[in-house]
Design a protein that fits this description.
Layout (H helix, E strand, L loop, with lengths): L2 H19 L4 H10 L6 H10 L4 H10 L10
Helix pairs in contact: 2-3
Amino acid sequence: MSVDQQCENKVKGLLKAELKRRNVSYQDLANKLAALGVSETPENIANKISRGKFTAVFLMQCLEAIDCHTLRLAE
């Protein structure tokens, strides 16, 4: 597995874990993003997260939308 793939898997896992920790579905996230002025469908969110290829801006928007102020990168 390449370094890029490892990073994609890690960031995907981090975001999915934060959503699960807060019991936020993709529909909930779409609604929370919309409140911030970010238009995303639940399907687009699912696709982005499953691929693990999304921008840092999208990650930050998601974290802000779910009120995640601290992100633990390692256990």
